[in-house]
Design a protein that fits this description.
alpha/beta, two-stranded antiparallel sheet
């Protein structure tokens, strides 16, 4: 395992990753991480809607503002403000109910933290409250959620944790705010983060990865069709017939409805890799060299490793957002979740 650590203290929570004996390639890790059942129990969540964009004007009439829906789990009110609040952000076509979101929430709650499971725009069954689309550049939505929970609950410390596309969102936000980050923001974590979009989009179209591309596209096209029914004055359906690849989706849907000139403009504009040297708060990034479709450019890895605020961990095995090792008594073998919790506990203890 190759790693860059920020201090010797990091070694108390950062342990080598050893993949499960039968899961020694990226595809097996990725699929097992997605489909292996979990036994997760969470208390009932408090729902929180956060406005992220104002009304959207259509050719004939306007639609209302866009909201994202969060599911919040709070520690008792007498200690809530002092406890670290962990904001979890899912990946492409995920939601606040994705298994890794629930698993991390349960771990963080048990550790005494507050937890906010954030849905991206229109995810988690929220199409009706969000006329606008989500994409990898919506770091402002993360900022809006952070500001809302600080205002409502006066929390003193917040950590942002993002998986895949969500990892790009939280890292982009941290990079954009690097010169003057919110005083409550204490840490950022990206698990298999989509930091270099162009190379990762191309990787998703490689023959061995087409099954992943088809899976994403099927869900994303269905989402666009729903939006065309809900908001016909914004969305058309003719362009959907042209889409056969993720790049074409980004060209005809994300660029058109997200305000970019094309897919290349989108990939370049929103990539959090452009902020890799500017990250100014404690940051943990977990990436596997055998991730089937998330690729980091060598230059990005070099910059991350050179930034003293970043703990950049690249494992040789682990797949995409999986990192499954052998389970044992009291341990489910989900190394990434164990590792990021250890990092957050270190941050919390030191704040």
């Amino acid at each position: 395992m190759n790693m860059q650590t920020v201090s010797p203290a990091a070694q108390t929570w950062l342990t080598p990753f050893a993949p499960r004996p039968l899961l020694r390639n990226g595809h097996l890790q990725t699929l097992a991480g997605n489909f292996l059942p979990r036994n997760v129990s969470l208390p009932e969540a408090e729902s929180l809607q956060v406005e992220v964009e104002g009304p959207v004007a259509g050719p004939g009439s306007g639609y209302g503002p866009s909201f994202v829906l969060c599911h919040c789990h709070w520690q008792p009110v007498e200690v809530r403000a002092r406890r670290l609040t962990v904001v979890l952000v899912h990946g492409l076509e995920g939601s606040s109910s994705s298994q890794y979101m629930l698993g991390n929430a349960a771990r963080a709650l048990a550790a005494g933290f507050n937890v906010v499971r954030m849905n991206m725009r229109s995810c988690g069954g929220t199409d009706e409250i969000c006329p606008t689309i989500y994409h990898s550049g919506r770091s402002g939505d993360v900022a809006a959620v952070l500001a809302e929970i600080v205002e409502r609950h006066h929390v003193e410390s917040v950590a942002l944790v993002g998986y895949s596309m969500g990892g790009n969102l939280v890292l982009k936000f941290a990079g954009e705010a690097a010169a003057a980050p919110p005083p409550q923001l204490k840490a950022v974590v990206g698990v298999s983060p989509l930091m270099d979009l162009a190379i990762s989009s191309a990787a998703l179209h490689e023959p061995q990865n087409r099954i992943y591309e088809w899976h994403f596209l099927r869900n994303m096209i269905a989402r666009v069709r729903r939006r065309a029914q809900l908001f016909p004055e914004i969305y058309g359906s003719a362009e959907i017939q042209k889409i056969r690849t993720m790049r074409l989706f980004d060209e005809h849907i994300v660029a058109r409805y997200g305000g970019f000139t094309g897919a290349d403009d989108y990939y370049h504009s929103v990539a959090s890799s452009q902020y890799a040297d500017q990250l100014s708060i404690p940051t943990l990034i977990l990436h596997s060299a055998d991730d089937p479709f998330i690729r980091l450019l060598p230059s990005t890895c070099d910059v991350l490793a050179a930034n003293s605020n970043v703990t950049f961990v690249e494992t040789q095995r682990g797949g995409h957002c999986a990192f499954l090792e052998s389970a044992g008594p009291g341990y489910d073998g989900r190394w990434a979740e164990k590792t990021l919790l250890g990092f957050l506990q270190e941050i919390s203890d030191g704040s």
